[in-house]
Amino acid sequence: MEVFDYEDIQLIPNKCIVSSRSECNTQIQFGPRTFRIPVVPANMQTVINEELAIWFAENDYFYIMHRFDEAARIPFVKMMHERGLFASISVGIKDYEYNFVRQLAEENIIPEYITIDVAHGHSEDVLDMVRFIKEMIPQTFLIAGNVGTPEGVRELENAGADATKVGVGPGRVCITKLKTGFGTGGWQLAAIRSCAKAARKPIIADGGIRHHGDIAKSIRFGASMVMIGSLLAAHEESPGRTRVIDGRTYKEYFGSASEYQKGEHKNVEGKIEMIAARGKLSDTLIEMEQDLQSSISYAGGRDLEAIRKVDYVVVRNSIFNGDR
Ligand SMILES: NC(=O)C1=CN([C@@H]2O[C@H](COP(=O)(O)OP(=O)(O)OC[C@H]3O[C@@H](n4cnc5c(N)ncnc54)[C@H](OP(=O)(O)O)[C@@H]3O)[C@@H](O)[C@H]2O)C=CC1
Ligand SMILES: Nc1nc2c(ncn2[C@@H]2O[C@H](COP(=O)(O)O)[C@@H](O)[C@H]2O)c(=O)[nH]1
């Protein structure tokens, strides 16, 4: 298999067919709904909270609420539905999660999207949860992950997952690759490609996005949606705590498998980073949309489909080109 990552790839421009980038449509249908851009904020406690989830849903962005405030999940789904908004939540695979799913079904509280959020998604326990959710609440659009192989994608799909999430270890605050020696860190884009070739359903590229152009590259190699943590953290509205260090303002961004999330140092596979505080999240999302419109114009089309067909070259560390 050819191995490469985001920084090693350049997409090759085609003749432009629009007069303005504003003609390019970045919308994506994902499950039962259509969203403005193929981007979803990571379901992490320093990236999303209830206020942001409401804002994302109101503004036609996809979101996935994290699973770390377990008791808040049912009131959250009800609150979103009372406001006429879609509900998208995460679950784990521990025994009590079966009771949670059973309660959703019995009380007819049906989130439009559920994501099974586990580090090593290619496992019998995750496959069991996929089958259980599909049996109890077949109407919900079920995302399962994370995996890093075509076999993982196919097994989750065959068990009933409607989409799979690909990425084991490429994240900014991930230390899985260092602590275990495993993962797709350093070749995440190649992993997206091999998983997408095997997939019959949509995949979400999760982790390792460092520049807006990486979104277009993910789409080129087969992703339908791109999950982003660090680039969407540390904004004015972000839930991470604010810290002032040497007179500069930062916001916390920590891994879901870090001791900051877990409250103990056990099976730690994540760390914390202080990210310099930036402006409004809505401005970053608009910029992502504009950059993606530009990507579509370079691809020679009017919508995301154009990006999927472009040629590319592998040039190691090409994007920096001596500029760093
Ligand atoms: N995308 C990525 O690369 C990674 C993401 N994460 C994120 O961190 C959070 C915590 O993840 P996770 O630890 O899976 O969730 P949990 O701590 O909720 O673990 C889920 C269950 O899976 C078991 N489990 C976890 N890892 C393994 C493994 N390698 N082999 C066998 N059983 C396992 C756990 O048992 P036990 O704890 O006893 O082993 C537990 O019963 C999630 O939000 C996840 O997305 C974490 C690491 C990598
Ligand atoms: N190995 C770990 N991966 C983690 C942890 N917490 C979250 N994640 C993954 O990272 C992405 C976000 O990546 P980014 O490069 O955009 O910052 C997130 O969606 C998870 O899949 C963790 O503690 N360990």
Automatic annotation (TrEMBL):
EC number assigned by the record: 1.7.1.7
BP-aspect Gene Ontology terms: purine nucleotide metabolic process
Tagged with keyword Hydrolase: no
Keyword S-adenosyl-L-methionine: no
Example GO molecular function: GMP reductase activity
Matches recorded under InterPro entries: Aldolase_TIM, GMP_reductase, GuaC_type_2, IMP_DH/GMP_Rdtase_CS, IMP_DH_GMPRt
Domain of life: Bacteria
Keyword line: NADP, Oxidoreductase
Short name of one Pfam family: IMPDH
GO cellular component, one term: GMP reductase complex
Limits of the IMP dehydrogenase/GMP reductase domain: 5-310
Gene3D superfamilies, per database record: Aldolase class I
Catalysis: reaction(s): IMP + NH4(+) + NADP(+) = GMP + NADPH + 2 H(+)
Active site residues of this protein: 174 (thioimidate intermediate)
Residues involved in NADP(+) binding: 203-226
PANTHER family (alphabetical): GMP REDUCTASE
Role played: Catalyzes the irreversible NADPH-dependent deamination of GMP to IMP. It functions in the conversion of nucleobase, nucleoside and nucleotide derivatives of G to A nucleotides, and in maintaining the intracellular balance of A and G nucleotides.
Family: Belongs to the IMPDH/GMPR family. GuaC type 2 subfamily.
Protein name listed in UniProt: GMP reductase
Organism: Fundicoccus ignavus
Taxonomic path: Bacteria, Bacillati, Bacillota, Bacilli, Lactobacillales
